[in-house]
Structure formats: C-alpha cells, structure tokens
Amino acid sequence: MAKIKLSEKKIQELKDVCKTFNNDKGELINVLHKAQSLSGYLPAEVQEVIAKELNVSVAHVYGVVTFYSFFTMQPKGIHPVSICLGTACYVRGAEKVLEEFKRQLKIQVGETTPDGKFSLSCLRCVGACGLAPVVMVGEKVFGRVAPDGVADIIAEYNT
Amino acid sequence: MAKQIRIALRNCGVIDPERIEDYIARDGYMALATVLTELTPEAVIEILKKSGLRGRGGGGFPAGLKWEITRKVQADQKYVVCNADEGDPGAFMDRSILEGDPHSVLEAMTINGYCTGASKGLIYIRAEYPLAVERLKTAMAQSREMGLLGENILGTGFNFDIDIRYGAGAFVCGEETALIHSMEGLRGEPTVKPPFPSVEGYLKKPTNVNNVETFANVPVILNKGWEWFASIGTERSKGTKVFALAGKINNVGLVEVPMGTTLREVIFEIGGGIQHGREFKAAQTGGPSGGCLTKKHLDTPIDYDNLIAAGSMMGSGGLIVMDEDDCMVAIAKFYLEFTVEESCGKCSPCRIGNKRLHEILGKITQGNGTMEDIDKLRNLGTVIKDTSLCGLGQSSPNPVLSTLDNFYDEYMEHVKDKKCRSKVCKSLMQYLIIADKCIGCTLCARNCPVNAISGERKQAHFIDQEKCIKCGACMEKCKFNAIIIN
Q1: Angle between helix B212-224 and helix B102-116 axes, rounded to 10 deg
Q2: For a tag on chain A, would you pick the N or C end, based on fewer CB atoms within 10 A?
Q3: A27 vs B185: CB contact, 8 Å cut-off?
Q4: Rounded to two decimals, what is the model's pTM?
Q5: Interface probe, candidates B122, B123, B129, B166, chain A, greatest A C-beta count within 10 A
C-alpha cells in the first residue's frame, strides 16, 4: 500500500480518541470503531498512531483490525453498497443481485470504483430478513431488491 | 396466532421502548424490587433452577445452574455479560428485544448481579445494530435517573452498573470465551473450556454470560413464579422459544411459541405456509451450526433435545424455510462458505477441515464429484465435529451432514447423473432455445451480456454453450417461453 502522510490535525484527533478511552489497551476495539468513523478506514499509519498511544505493538493492532470484518484498510466509496448474504436473503436470490451490482459497477467485492463513488461489500444479515433480499447503500436500506432494480438504485446515487 | 405465548417478547410492540414509565406500567422492575428487598440470592437462583429455564443462545445450558456456579466462586470482582452478538444469519430476535424492550434485559442483568455478587455488567452488542444501541443507552440513562441502576439501587445499598461493548463483525464472538477476548480488546479467538467463564472470564474474573432472550425471560419468571413457567413446554425444555421465520414462507417475522410446538404448526398454521403455494422442502434451524429438517420432521415437537436428535440444533432460533427451488447441496455449500470465512483460524480441524469440505462441495456442484467425495464429506465432517476447539467448529459440519442424511438422493443426482433438480447449480444446467417456439425476435440476443446467442431475424436462435455464462437474462426477456433450462 502506498504510504500516506497523516496531517498533524488528524494525528491529534486520533490521540484525542485514545484519550477518551483513557489510553486503555482493553478499549482497542472501541478506539478502532471511533477511528474508522473519523477517516472511513484504517490505513497502516492510523494503526501506528493508535498502537503508540495505547502502548501495544503495531502487530497487535493490525491483528485485531484484520480479524474483524467491520474494520477495513481500504478506503470505501462515497456510497458504500453492501449486499446482505444472510441465509434469508440468499434463498431469495441475493446472489443474483450481487452479480448484477458487480456487472454494472464493474468492480469486485471489496473494491471501490475508480471515481471513488461506489464500493461493494457483503454483509452477514442486518436483521431485516422480512425484507429479503436486502441491499444497503450507506445507511439506507433497500428491501426486496431484484436484479432489474439494481440500475435504479445506482442511478439514485449517480448524479 | 393462537398458538403463540409471548414471554420474551411480551412488551415488544406494546410499549414505547424509550419510556421507562411504559415498562414499569407492565410490571417492569417489580421483580428487581422483590428480589432486592425480600429474597436472598440463593432463593432467586433456586426459583430459576426450578423454572427449568435453559440458555436461549443455542447451547441450552440451565440458566439457574450457571448463576449458581458463578455465585459460588470466590473473587473480589465478578462480571455479568449479556451476549447480544446475534451473528446467525436469519435470526433477529435479540435485536427485536433490545429495540422493543431494552429495560427487561437491564432488569435481568441487575438481578443477575445481585445473585452472583457482581457489580458490573457489560452488554456485548453487534456494531450492525445502531438502533438497539441507542435504545439501550436511553434506557440505561432512565434507569440510573430513577435509581434502578447505579449506586444504592432502590435504596437497598446494592450497586450495579452496565456498560456497552461493541462487536466488530466476527461470528465466532458469539462463543463466550471468544466474546470475552473481544471485550478485552483482543482478537476474538476462543480458548479451551474449562475453565468456564463462570469461573475465569473477563479480565480473569468470574463472568456470567447469558444471551439476550435468556435474560428477557427472567423478570417474568420471578413475577409469575416458577410453577407457571415450568407448566409451559416439554419435559426437559421449559417455557417458550422465539423463532425468526424467514425464507420462502408467507408470514415472515418473529414468533414465540411454547417449546414442543411442531414444525408443522409453526410453518403452516402460524407462518401461513409456503409462498406461491409451492411444496415445502426443508427448514433450516440453528443457522450455520444447525441442520436441515425435512417433511418427516414436520410433526416432531421442537425442543432442544429433539432438534439435536434430528441432526440440527436450536441455535438462536433462526428458522429458514426452503422450497423445491432450493438445492440442498448448494445450501450446504453456502453455509460452509460462511464457516470458512468466519473460522477464527486458531485450531486446524476448523480452519483446514472446513476449507476442504467447502472445496469438495464446490467440486460436486460443478459436476465433478465422485462417490469417494461423498465418503470424504462424511468422514471429514465427523472428524471436524469431534476435534474442533469451540462450538463453531464442533457444529460447522452440521449443514453438510444433515443434508447428506436427509437429501442423499440429491447428492447422488449431482454426482452420478450430473443433474441439479432445483436448477440452482449453474455448471449442471444448460439454457436451450426451443426452435419451434422461437420466432426470431432477437430480443434475447440483444440482451445477452456475452453475445452467446446467434441467429438471423425471424429465424430460430441458438445459444453457444461455450460462451454462455448462464446468467438467465435471455430466459427472463423471452416473451414466448422459448428458452428452457435443461
């Protein structure tokens, strides 16, 4: 991954986040949640700052970041598209919907479109099984999505 | 809906979850008041033991016994943990309880703290449930204000407070030792039991871990008495269970039925039967750890022990209904994919074994399976069950083993005849154009994403099987039903 340089302001923000959790290494996951909500993702440089503040090794932080699917080291698109692949959605055809998103956005799962607008990921159940298959774009939930409804969803954000 | 009894879901949809007064008006915090002023911890534990309440998270361990074990361990600090890491795809009862009746969980955790000698409670909740987190925070602030949480609760001198910890998307963290490691800021990897968390848990202190639904049952049992609770259900499984009905069923949603209700009653009477009047094929219970039940299990009373005997398990209560369009081999593969992704990688049977199972299933769904593969699935599955470290690995082969038992002929068709009767396994099917029906409108050819369809205008078209990616776009577009799946 290309090295990026964090601004002084960003570093201070991260330090402040650590401080609100008393620089307690037991709070690492909570710190990472906060840090990710600040920058959208957790690049290596962010992990280095956190490791130093909580007095743990960078390897430890990296181990935790890569263990949990909620944390990502890739920047997400402005409109992150998540397709639920829980069982209820699966039996109602979520896979076809996913294929259609891949085809139309021309990216694979975990990737972001070159213009940075959309990123594609899979979810394991958002607990809205009554609306299966479910697609989330950002915080908005689309229920009972069919493959031929995919174009409309993309168009809604592609302005 | 007559067959339903609402205990855990008693307040969901009835009260305003953001108003503590609503909860109190429905006997909320009455159990806590009685416990703190009139009962000893031992007496409360005795009531729970007699009620027969078992853990609703899936394992089915007697709740009263767990509380007693935690109580008996000597320590300067103990913890109460509520497991709200509802990771089973297709299950959403914990979410509903937390969003619809958060106080019932807070009340039960406080009672648990009094019984076990803990002064601190932690709720481990999925980050994917932001509304539940909000409701919990509101509820906690309200109870603190009314002296029902925090220092000197109800003026009795008892102190107990609750904090929230977030999960970060790891299925294995529903396993209690993994959950505890996750709360400590570590990778959520399980450890060998014993020691059980009740003896050595969070920060090495005795920790009582119960699931959301288990906690939600506690205040009612204390209010209405153990005799009442024990009168519901079967001999060894008391009370009710919440199921999340999903899949190809007419009425989707949560149902709460007495233990011992049959699958037929749940699916056909409460669930309204299969969508579009199609044929029931299987019901999957217990999520990725469970198995598939079939027509022959429709009249089996559902309880912890019967489900295990049928090769499945209660799990958290997800119940996904499948019809004749679902291929059971593909379903088994789907679950294995989940397990492979979610295995923490600590022990090799689970990390490597499930990967191999998944590969073999992939081979079968692509039409390259052999009889030897079927034997391998069975042997490997059994070894993984016997040798894995935690509940995830010990139950992960269940979807494969139960479909092998119940749908052996479907596996045979995939292996021997290279056929998928549900038309799900793409490698085993061909899209064909019936020349007699095709009028040559060219609509299919224009819609084919890979230009696999050729033919002159007003003449029958033809699909090049080499090029075809089996997306089905042509069949959807054809207005003359001229395209079929072979």
Answers
A1: 80
A2: C
A3: yes
A4: 0.90
A5: B166
